[in-house]
Amino acid sequence: MDTKTKDGDENATPLIIASRNGNLDCVKILLSFEADIEARGTVKANTDEAVEDCSPSWVAAATGHVVKLLIDHKEEVNGRNATNSTPLRVAAYDGRLDIVSYVVENGADVNSRDEFESTPLMITCYKGHMDVASYLILHGANHHLKDNNGDTCLHYAEEKGHIEVVGRLLSLGVKEEQNHKCLTPLLVASSELNLSHDKESQSADLEEQELDELYFDIATGKLRARREGNVDLQRP
């Protein structure tokens, strides 16, 4: 049972559609009729862009009960779509520690890379999911890897001002290294501050208390003190 249903840009099997919608009962019925668990399809992601070569577990990675059922039925836990993204990456992006831990315990590659050479750890640092980042590191995620732009997970965390994640990475010895554009994580975060300030200054002066904590530290020179151990990274 792998007949695909086309709807606009989407072209997916009933199992993929049911998995994406989190319909556990429907998934169970389809599996009982031996639906092809490895059949791939094209679905729309959150950005409304079509993503090709998606597996049922990839589209279900944000709905824990369904992805667990699919993996229990022996779907490939490291299956990739057209962009080399895995179910682990999707769960890490969404901050779903329950799914992250389940797929890792079932053999997911914590250092898998997508088409841009970024890892699940990098994307969860970008999103600021401290619990997921800590879990991945504890289970072997390499926090020194770089993507195809030369960015480390520290670049990803600092770009969005996730100070708790930054502190964790610094405590593990992640260095302030330049990427291929000669930008350190600090410079990346500084550029984000400048962009934010430009937007705000069009209507009003940007006040210090409105800045994200990390960006304020950059603007006042306190971030370097944090790195030298003079300021508690966990302090508000």
TrEMBL record:
Stored InterPro entries: Ankyrin-SOCS_Box, Ankyrin_rpt, Ankyrin_rpt-contain_sf
Keyword annotations from UniProtKB, A to Z: ANK repeat, Repeat
SUPFAM superfamilies in alphabetical order: Ankyrin repeat
GO MF terms here are:
transcription cis-regulatory region binding
- One cellular-component annotation, GO: nucleus
Keyword Ubl conjugation assigned to the entry: answer is no
Highest taxon above the source species: Eukaryota
Q: Where does the record place its ANK repeats?
A: 10-42, 83-115, 116-148, 149-181
Q: Pfam families this protein is in?
A: Ank, Ank_2, Ank_3
What Gene Ontology biological process does one annotation of this record name?
positive regulation of transcription by RNA polymerase II
Tell me which PROSITE patterns the record gives. ANK_REP_REGION, ANK_REPEAT
PANTHER family in the cross-refs? ADA2A-CONTAINING COMPLEX COMPONENT 3, ISOFORM D, ANKYRIN REPEAT PROTEIN
Report what the protein is called.
Answer: Protein fem-1-like B
Q: Which organism is it from?
A: Stylophora pistillata
